[in-house]
Amino acid sequence: MTHAARAGEPPLVRFAAVSCSYGRATVLDSVDLEIPRGALVGVVGPSGAGKTTLLRAIVGGVPRMRGVVTVDGRPVTGPRSARVGWVPQLETVDWDFPATVREVVCMGRWGRAPWRAWMTREDRAAADAVLDRLGVGGLGDRQIRQLSGGQQQRVFLARALISDPVLLLLDEPTSGVDIRTRDEVLHLLADLNRTGMTIVMTTHELNSVAAHLPWVVCVNRRIVAEGDPERIFTAEILNATYEADLRIVRQDGAILVADAAPHRLRSALRHSHDGYEHAHHEHEGDPHIHDHDHAHRHEPVPHAHADGSVHVHEEPRS
Q: For the chain, how far is it from start to end, CA to CA, in angstroms?
């Protein structure tokens, strides 16, 4: 499936005729999908297409599900396995919660052991080791609300990795961060993948994220297509995925996906009103300042008095 996938091994994750719903609304319908060990996979699609639900199904977080999802050969039947690490969207985190970085990281360790009210020496050592590995050592005692976006993302990666998972799931890991932080996160995920970690991430960013991944799954309630972006990023596939008019530009080995709709919208907004359309044609190329009183308005006229004072008198408008 990907260049990093291990040939000859059974898939780490398998969906077999999986349908997921919330109430009466079906979000995923009859999904069949395999994710090999060692893969780095991006999941793309429009809002509400089922990207996050696909991840939740892997950890048993969907209330109504038909079909079978297996992870490492075992059916997913309940709460998430300790062998799966989860990194949520940063926007869903309560950053005012009074917790230190080390406490947040240890939450991932406590997920596979009975809850305890304090950290052991082993907990602290494990948390500090994974923070050092991710380049944010020394932040253990800092409150999470005091972190930058990049540091926040690394802390939640540390929380996921402290349980030594075989699979890492990330929901929109580059959402809401600046370009530098986005690139740092992607390089960090690439480094983790090179160690053998299987990674599945959702993303809305086709050009800056998905186009650079080795394997992408296009989702819109069903699997529309999957494969190398070089092969599946076509107008036919992406238009079916997003139900929109998308244009694909390929130049110097790069892929650029552009939305054709804004160009039509701009044209409609600029030419829909008859009065403004007339003004555009009459004054084409020149800026036009609207002043409805300019034909009858007079500038104020200053008058000097004998005592040297100046009085500004405005002529009446006709």
A: 80
Q: To which residue do tokens 């406590």 refer?
A: 110
CB 226 within 8 A of CB 33: yes
In this predicted model, what pLDDT tens digit does every residue of 79-103 receive, in sequence order?
Answer: 666 589 999 887 778 878 888 999 9
Which pLDDT does position 219 carry in this prediction? 98
Angle at the Cα of 212 (from 50 to 181), degrees rounded to 5?
85
φ, ψ of residue 240 in degrees (nearest 5): -70, -35
Cα gap 146→161, rounded to integer Å:
22
Give the pair of three-digit tokens for residue 8. 């000859």
Q: Whole-model pTM?
A: 0.79
Helix (H) or strand (E) holding 259: strand 254-259
Closest CA to 189 of 203, 199, 181: 199
Radius of gyration of the chain (CA): 28
Q: How far apart are CA 122 and CA 128, in angstroms?
A: 10
**Helix, strand or coil for residue 55?**
helix
**If residue 34 lies in a helix (H) or strand (E), which one and from where to where?**
strand 25-35
**DSSP per-residue string spanning 163-226:** T--SEEEEESTTTT--HHHHHHHHHHHHHHHHTT-EEEEE-S-TTTTGGGSSEEEEESSSEEEE
- pLDDT by residue (tens digit) across 161-210? 998 899 999 999 988 788 988 898 999 999 999 999 999 999 999 998 99
Q: How far is CA 94 from the centre of its chain?
A: 18
DSSP 234: S
Which among 222, 87, 52 has a CA at the least distance from the CA of 167? Answer: 87
Give the burial class of 272: count Cβ atoms within 10 A of its Cβ; 0-12 exposed, 13-18 middle, 19 or more buried.
Answer: exposed
